[in-house]
Amino acid sequence: MKTSLRIRAALLSVLLLLVLTGIWQIATTSSQQTGQTTMTPEQIEYAKLMGQPIDNAAPAKNNGFPTPRQFAETAAHALAHPFYDNGPNDKGIGIQLAWSLLRVLAGYLLAACVAIPAGFLIGTSPLVYRALDPFIQILKPISPLAWMPIALYTIKNASISAIFVIFICSLWPMLINTAFGVANVRKDWLNVARTLEVAPLRKAFRIILPAAAPTILTGMRISMGIAWLVIVAAEMLVGSTGIGYFVWNEWNNLSLSHVIFAVLIIGVVGMLLDLVFASIQKKVTYVE
User: What whole-number distance in Å separates Cα of residue 286 and Cα of residue 253?
Assistant: First the structure.
């Protein structure tokens, strides 16, 4: 039954993809036929800056929104040479992704090292919870990008500032979910541990942590999604390298095909990261 449902769902997904691609093809083809592929004012200005010829009468192949075929050619070329490096503003998609993942991993691991122990402490101590809750409630709603000017001023390094932003945005979901999971461990288990005089450290690792693991993993999963979301915007601000900078640079080059390709890559990588945490979460989740 489950196999049949998966097959039908996959077929429906393929059908939807074909329909969307067909709509895309019809829209871009009709646009070119009606002469809307002539150079836009922005493209004219860019051509003037680059010293390129300007011809509003003849439609250009790469002007305007790309067709599915043009997009496929762009994606194939980018995937065929993902690690080329021709200078600061011309790097392959593989290099850009590697820089983004490295920053996300660094900021995320730093946040985990702080949030999980702190959440554990908050969840086991009502006093600490009441003392820290006002600070958490004030800092949690602040947009991570609002920290970027402060980070750039104090750290004076664009790449480390981006890592700091990832750290800030990853901190709160892990902290809150860890505290919630630890605070809601079944009292019966804790009473048994107290009766058996289990040492505090042993109780933490053998009872509290396994019981709270599903909730902690949920917080880590949410944090990873937010971190990957924020790194794109952060790299648009700090520049130099990364998938966010790649999107912004290609937009400045008026290459919509590369922009769309990068957007899809961002979505695929985000989906893969989420699937990793989803599989780990299933392994630590148990049903009574």
Answer: 51
Q: Token digits for 203?
A: 């109780």
Q: Where in the chain is the domain with CATH 1.10.3720.10?
A: 93-284
Q: Is the dihedral of CA 98, 104, 106, 109 positive or negative?
A: negative
Q: Any idea which residue has 């947009």 for tokens?
A: 143
Q: What angle do CA 248, 251, 253 make, to 5 degrees?
A: 115
Measured CA to CA, the distance from residue 215 to residue 209 in angstroms comes to 10
Distance between CA 108 and CA 114 in Å, rounded? Answer: 10
Which alpha helices (H) appear in the chain, and where do they start and end? 2-33, 41-50, 68-80, 93-124, 126-139, 148-155, 158-183, 187-195, 200-203, 209-238, 243-252, 256-284
pTM above 0.85, yes or no: no
93-284: CATH topology:
MetI-like fold (1.10.3720)
Least Cα distance to 79 among 71, 89, 88 occurs for 71
Per-residue pLDDT of the chain (288 residues; tens, 9 = 90+): 677 888 888 888 889 988 888 888 888 776 555 544 455 666 666 666 666 666 544 444 445 678 888 888 888 988 888 888 887 777 889 999 999 999 999 999 999 999 999 999 999 888 988 999 899 999 988 888 888 888 888 988 888 989 999 999 999 999 999 999 998 888 888 788 788 878 878 888 888 888 889 999 999 999 999 999 998 888 888 777 889 889 988 888 878 888 999 999 999 999 999 999 999 888 877 655
